[in-house]
Amino acid sequence: MKIGLLILLALCFPFTLSYSQSLTDPCVKAFCDKGNQEFNQGNYNSAIEKFKNAKACPLATEDNKREIDNKITQCYIAIGENDLRRANLAYENDEYDLAIEYYKKVQKNPSSAYKLTDEMEDNIARCWFGKVTQKAYQAKNQKQYETAITFFSEALKINRIQAYEQAKVRTQINECQKLSDYQSGIQEQQKGSCEEAVKYYQMVLENPAVTSNEQISINQRIKECEEKMILDIEMVYVEGGTFEMGSNDGNDDEKPAHKVTLNSFYIGKYEVTQKQWQAIMGNNPSFFLGCDNCPIEEVSWDDVQEFIRKLNQKTGKMTRLPTEAEWEYAARGGNNSQEYKFAGTSNYNELHKYANFCDMNCENSWKTVNQNDGYRNIAPVGEYLPNELGIYDMSGNVWEWCSDFYSLDYYSNSPRYNPENNTNAPGRVYRGGSWFLDLGQCQVVNRNYWLPNYRSNNLGFRLLRKE
Predict the structure, then answer these.
(1) What is the mean pLDDT of residues 157-166?
(2) Which domain holds residue 373?
(3) Residues facing residue 237 across a β-bridge
(4) Contact at 8 Å (CB) between 384 and 255?
């Protein structure tokens, strides 16, 4: 910024301070001579002091004093010119504190030519603006974007700033916010927190400062995160232990109740969804389409094996179907078990809070007319209360394939430790009941089976990974 001198030249006196013939008093003449000498050497404050001494001489006349006052005024004008020059130079060199100091001196200058308060206020405001934005740009260059936003926001609060400068600052705020959100997104993605990363990336896309090339890059990162979230099956840790499997009061294939000991494992918090299946297999065979977060159904045991093979290939993890024993242990709540009949409760009258089964909304004749689980058929995963371990939908929604072959009398001779029925048989086990059947089928001890190529719109699966 180059600020011109706003001085009316008509008010300025010649720089050579000659005195009139009336200055005949030796005292007045001596001090005025010294004042002229100091002025010509640029020592204006000293010159003012000498002229004031001349004015104080006992024989100084009123005419003398008026002329001396004019000389003092011209000294102040010269001081003001110097201060203004220094202020302008400091401003141009981005030395804003120094510029403010000199502008304030100009503002306080007794010379009437410098009583331009509004202009000096404008100059001082521009210096504050320059000082604050300087700090903002420094923070931005150091990638301290939140700090930069704070400084830019402070700059907007400064009065007397032109509209175009305010617009530039708002653009910088948007730019810094974009960079800050992008930086946070990268950090969250690197930590593996893809859900948080996507939130930041979405904010970048909504920022008016984002460019078309940046949009392409951000959308690619969102795609990577969403794919990772889909492939990263959320698991619940199930600590190993011993439990009583089966029931002496149930169906024949649930007998006898017997002790089983299992190692620790991780099991899916939810049933595998249509969206997850689509991401791995590239298709969606479900009967109930249009619900990405609903469990996949219409998949056979054989189909599931192909899904697992491809999933493990993509993720490098070793997932599989749970054994029948692992499934029941997790459904019962593992070491936290309260011995509930269903996953999370034994109260038949409140099962609608924990499971999606054939309730009053169901069209089948065996529906439970006094309960309402909120869905006519299939429901999105995680809609109901979990069991003691925080696992959802282990009673109801869809049946879940297990790894075992089915045998009616398997419980009579199954091993105690980590049992899995590998004896070749026509059918494979599935557990848990479904939206299609009555609540009795949703008990954690209930067993069912079908051929491995069987598909149904109320049959899906969840996955397991060993510790």
Answers:
(1) 90
(2) 235-466
(3) 266
(4) no
